[in-house]
Specification:
Its EC number is 3.4.21.102. This is Carboxy-terminal processing protease CtpB. By secondary structure, this protein is an alpha+beta fold. The chain has nine helices and 24 strands. Strands 1, 2, 3, 15, 16, 17, 20 and 21 form an eight-stranded antiparallel beta sheet that branches. α6 runs parallel beside α7 and α7 packs parallel to α8. The chain starts with a strand and ends in a 19-residue tail after the last helix.
């Protein structure tokens, strides 16, 4: 049996920004659920009884389709924070968004304790320009409380005609009262890769993993190598800070950009035969130049796959603060005219066999970013382990989060400037360059 579905390694639930690619995969050998027990059928009868009682006796005539949709979504969201139902419109929106262009505010969001939480604002979008920060809790939209809305309902309210304004009421960490921020909607064109030359170092920022990410990275490296002679180029900084993730295949392709051989990542589902291993092909586009990868508490999932692969293979030094800790993979399974479900189907493991679920990637060099005075009271960004219902770490050790602030002015960016100093030999650290002769731990 062939079904269409897509694999995501994304840190946010269905939000104002999301990305998904469709693949054809044979699911016939991935295992079939055991036959339902009599108790299961009794529970299904219970669902039918409650459904009919609501239809017959609720104070107003209910919408049958909404009842079923809410029941399905409730079933999925009870599993973990990243499983959910998308109706036909939501699924269509998601398919459009994977192309890297959509209408909205430009934020990655999830739902936490009944309110919308900003995972990260996307660079150069209305939300980022208006001052929305990672970790902000959106409690009202144009004065209407978010409490009681589903994530999808909140997302739909945040979308609207280009140039139309919306007022977001947000609570900031340790804030004493809500803040109202007005944002004007726009067409969000996601350029997932941006680059520049820092005199003798190539700087590449990857904001998320869309269908264009690998091509954008390849073009960025080629341009940097064209602009800076090889004997002058000290190396590359790959900035994955506040990158919430995206497409699994793009995370693999980005990792492969810097690796000649070896496993990049493995995904392991419920059944042993579902294990998939992804390996690098020969060819390092950076031609062996030193690489430093920047991560922080907003670097999630696909970002963590890249950081974990390059760290385990000693191809790059990871610098910054502990990453988000989302070590699961979601499958988008279309349901014909009824939309699709987003279902957590596997955990992923770094080349050394490590699951980072609810723990994150620990940087080789920790550099905490100093906060400006107005944000001194801001708590650390909460990671995967802080999400209600999250998949537990397999070894029981969990970490709740770390700093995720990135200064808008590069001169104040302690993490970036430390990376530049290391590449130029102005600072020394035992973790840079990594000891490439050691085998990947197993």
């Amino acid at each position: 049996m062939i079904r269409k579905f897509s694999l995501l390694a994304s840190g946010a639930l269905l939000g104002v920004a999301a990305s998904v690619g469709i693949q054809h995969v044979d699911l016939s050998s991935t295992g079939v659920a055991n036959a339902a027990s009599p108790d299961t059928y009794r529970q299904l009868t219970l669902f039918g009884d409650v459904f009919e009682r609501i239809r017959a006796d609720y104070v107003e005539v209910p919408d049958d389709a909404k009842l079923v949709e809410s029941a399905v979504n409730g079933m999925l969201t009870s599993l973990d924070p990243h499983s959910s139902y998308m109706n036909a419109k939501s699924f269509e929106d998601m398919q459009v968004q994977t192309k890297g262009e959509f209408g909205g505010l430009g934020i990655e969001v999830t739902m936490e304790e009944g309110v919308v939480k900003v995972v990260t604002p996307i660079d150069d979008t209305p939300a980022a320009k208006a001052g929305i920060l990672a970790g902000d809790l959106i409690i009202a939209l144009d004065g209407e409380q978010v409490q009681g809305l589903t994530l999808q309902q909140a997302v739909e309210k945040m979308r609207g005609p280009v140039n139309s304004p919306i007022t977001l009421t947000v609570m900031r960490a340790n804030g004493t009262k809500p803040i109202e921020i007005s944002v004007k909607r726009d067409i969000i064109k996601i350029q997932s890769v941006r680059s520049r030359v820092e005199t003798d170092v190539g700087y590449v920022r990857i904001t998320q993993f869309t269908e264009q990410t690998f091509d954008g990275l390849k073009a960025a490296i080629e341009k940097i190598e064209k602009d800076v002679p090889s004997d002058k180029l000290k190396g590359f900084v790959i900035d994955l800070r506040n990158n919430p993730g995206g497409l699994l295949d793009q995370a693999i392709a980005v990792s492969d950009t810097f690796l000649d051989k070896g496993e990049i990542v493995s995904t392991r589902g419920r059944h042993e035969e579902e294990t998939r291993r992804y390996s690098a092909r020969a060819g390092d586009l950076a031609t062996g130049k030193p690489v430093i990868v920047l991560v922080n508490g907003g670097s999630a999932s696909a970002s963590e796959i890249v950081a974990g692969a390059l760290q385990d293979h000693r191809r790059a030094t990871i610098l910054g603060t502990r990453s988000f800790g989302k070590g699961s993979v979601q499958t988008i399974i279309p349901l014909g005219e009824n939309g699709a479900i987003r279902l957590t189907t596997a955990r992923y493991y770094t080349p050394s066999g490590t699951s980072i679920q609810a723990k994150g990637i620990v940087p080789d060099i920790e550099v905490k970013q100093e906060l400006p005075e107005e944000l001194k009271d801001q708590l650390e960004t909460r990671g995967e382990a802080s999400l209600p219902g999250h998949l537990s770490s397999q070894d029981g050790a969990e970490e709740t989060g770390s700093g995720a602030y990135v200064p808008p002015d590069a001169k104040d960016d302690q993490q970036l400037n430390t990376a530049l100093d290391l590449l130029r030999g102005l600072q020394a650290n035992s973790a840079f360059p990594p000891k490439t002769g050691e085998p990947v731990p197993n």
